[in-house]
């Protein structure tokens, strides 16, 4: 759904929004150059000690760890790459987060792909204790938070809009659901 919302915003500007996109369709690139780009990306990430314990990705495995971002905003068949986005649950492992952060850095800083920006989003999920607190009537936090937004030169300070992160309890949820039915 996030990609669909992004498509609605960026399609009017001529950008494509793709999920788990595993093609570099630049007409100037040969298949060998494309494979070399991704092989080099994988090697640089996995040679780093921060991701020890992760298995090497398989580009054909769509359910496992790959070097492809969750969502990209770009213009297909061109070198116009706007943003690479990774989305994880807040409960994801530090190893997986390190891997995704390094991957996004390579998409921006690497010498071939040259994305203008990268964005790492964490979805705030409820733990078992959060659900118990919620059932007892306490408020819990839901929504998203930005872990890092970066461009070629720096990490950009970006605050997630308040409407994307909310404190809810049973009473406010019932009111929200009741209001949406009318």
Topology at a glance:
Elements: H1 2-10, E1 16-19, H2 31-46, E2 71-74, E3 81-89, H3 94-109, E4 117-124, H4 128-135, E5 140-151, E6 155-156, E7 165-168, H5 170-181
Parallel strand pairs: 3-4
Antiparallel strand pairs: 1-2, 2-3, 4-5, 5-6, 5-7
Main sheet overview: 7 strands, mixed
**Could you tell me how far the N terminus lies from the C terminus, measured between alpha carbons in angstroms?**
24 Å
Strand/helix succession:
HEHEEHEHEEEH
DSSP strand count: 7
What's the helical proportion of residues?
A: 25-40%
Structural domains: how many: 1
- Overall spatial form: globular
The quaternary organization reads as: single chain
Textual characterization of the structure:
This protein has 182 residues and is α+β, with helices and mostly antiparallel strands. It contains five helices and seven strands. It has helices at residues 2-10, 31-46, 94-109, 128-135, 170-181, and strands at 16-19, 71-74, 81-89, 117-124, 140-151, 155-156, 165-168. Strands 1, 2, 3, 4, 5, 6 and 7 form a seven-stranded mixed sheet that branches. Strand 3 (81-89), helix 3 (94-109) and strand 4 (117-124) form a beta-alpha-beta unit. The longest helix is centred in the N-terminal third of the chain and has 16 residues, at 31-46. 16% of the residues are buried. The model has no long low-confidence stretch (mean pLDDT 76).
Keywords:
182 residues, alpha+beta, seven-stranded mixed sheet, 5 helices, 24% strand, globular
């Amino acid at each position: 759904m996030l990609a669909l919302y992004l498509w609605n915003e960026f399609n009017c500007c001529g950008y494509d929004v793709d999920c788990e996109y595993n093609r570099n369709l630049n007409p100037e690139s040969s298949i060998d150059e494309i494979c070399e780009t991704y092989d080099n990306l994988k090697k640089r990430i996995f040679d780093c000690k921060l991701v020890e314990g992760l298995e090497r990705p398989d580009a054909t495995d769509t359910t496992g760890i790959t070097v492809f971002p969750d969502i990209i905003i770009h213009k297909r068949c061109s070198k116009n790459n706007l943003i690479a986005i990774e989305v994880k649950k807040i409960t994801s492992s530090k190893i997986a987060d390190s891997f995704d952060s390094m991957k996004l850095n390579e998409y921006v800083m690497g010498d071939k792909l040259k994305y203008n920006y990268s964005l790492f989003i964490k979805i705030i999920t409820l733990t078992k204790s959060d659900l118990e607190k919620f059932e007892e009537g306490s408020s819990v936090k839901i929504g998203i938070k930005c872990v890092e937004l970066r461009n070629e030169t720096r990490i950009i300070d970006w605050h997630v809009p308040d409407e994307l992160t909310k404190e809810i309890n049973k009473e406010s949820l019932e009111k929200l659901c009741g209001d949406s039915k009318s």
